[in-house]
Structures are given as C-alpha cells and as structure tokens.
Amino acid sequence: MKKLLLLASGLFISLTSFGQAACCDQPVAEVSNDMALLASNHSFVMLHEEPLPFTYQSAAGEMVKFKTADGTEASGFLLKAPNASNKWLFVYQEWWGLNDYIKQEAEKLYNDLKDVNVLAVDMYDGKVATTREEASKLVQVPRERLGAIMQGAIAYAGPQAQIANVGWCFGGGMSLQSAILGGKQTVGCVMYYGQPEKNIERLKTLNTDVLGIFGAKDTGISPATVSEFEKNMKEAGKETSIKMYDAPHAFANPSNPGYNKEATADAYQITLDYLKKHLKV
Q1: Which residue positions does the secretion signal occupy (predicted)?
Q2: For FRET with 118, which of 56, 189, 251, 276 sits at 20 to 30 Å CA-CA?
Q3: CATH at residue 169
C-alpha cells in the first residue's frame, strides 16, 4: 500500500509540474516595450481619457494562475472552450490593466469564436490603473517580466496549442510580441493601435501575418509609424493587412470620449473574420 501511495504521489507531481517544467526550463525572454518610452511623453499620456467606472460579471470566465519562466506566478482571465480544444486566443490589455472592459471583450470574442480557449493575460500582476498617471507608471514593466509572463501563458496553453493573439494600445504591441515569442505555435496576430516592433530580424521570426487596426487621427501611434511598420514587415518577408479608420487613439474603447461606434463595429467584424480563418473555426 505504501509503495502504491508513493507511485501515485510521484504521478501527481509529474502531471502537475508538466506545464511548469515546460515553462521554466527555458531562459527568460525579453520583449520590446516601446510603450514605456511613449509613456514619458506628456502629450501621449494625455491622449488617453480615463476610463469610466465599469463592473462586469462574467458568465463563463474565471481567474487562473500559472507558473512563469522567472520562477514566479502570473494570472489571467480564462474562458475555457466547452469542448476540449488546442485552439487558443490570447487577449492583451490596454495600458490600464486587466480591467472589466477587457474581460468583457474577451468574453465577447469567446462567445463569437466558439470552441476556442480565450485567455486574457494579466501583464501587470493584478494591478489596474484608473488614472493616466497610474497607467504611465504601470506600463513600465521590465521587459524580462513581460517576456516571462508570455512564456508562462504559452506553456499553460500547452505544447500542442495553436495560438492567436489580439490586443489594444499597450496590448496591441504585446499581441505582436506574443506572436513573435510563440514561434511555430502562433497562428494569428491582431494589433489595435499598438506600438509595432521595429527590429526587422525579430519580425522575420513571425510565423503568421499581422492584422493591424489603427486610427488616422492617432498622434501617438501615427500613420507614419504604421507606414514604417508596413515597410519593415515587407522587408522581413511577412504579410500585413492594415485597416486605417478616421478616428483617434483608443477609438474602440467604449469608456473613451473618442469612442467611434461605427469604426469599432467594423473593426470587430474584420478581427472576428481574421481570427476564425486563422484558428480554423
């Protein structure tokens, strides 16, 4: 009996530590976070209207924890596919943090995609900003920590997972960084008005094309920045589809006075079509 208990204990340890080993046996990756530099610019900070109070009660999601490559834990808002699936969508927050607006958007995508696991990754380790000043400080997450959290999320999804990414603002840039970090497991990337990666050698490692959604009136992530990104992607031998709306930064955030309902609806449909095609659902 004692021997059987020991064997069962060893099996339990082996099963529960699988994701951790897959995550933590690799060095911590650094990812780009140019949003941190932009946050030192007062005019860029002022582009962000402070979010209106909002509370969202999820019907299907729950907060989960997972091990990260730096040996600590991270968390995320998980909406698990009703049927077992290796298809995953990682959702990346605006610079405010993983607030209820992002959870609502994650659940909307979950309901529309069907049979896809959706994980809204918490890049601020539980912190959420309600003012511009707080957000400009929280966005200064060390690049190593951002990379470690992403590696942990990829390991949590598992080695067979096919992963698409989507994010807004800070999360738009993180969506692209996650797509780069995911290697061959990456099947899609949507970035809403996020800071693009400028290193062409890093862009060459992408395993997917990129859908970029931007505002023509955005003075932070300007049309010139978008044009440079298109040029760099072409030089890297990668495809990109850009949709430019006559709208300001963060036009898809309903808490933003610059919210553009029509552009948001159109962008959402384009995003949904892209994700369905790339996740094959």
Answers
A1: 1-21
A2: 251
A3: 3.40.50.1820
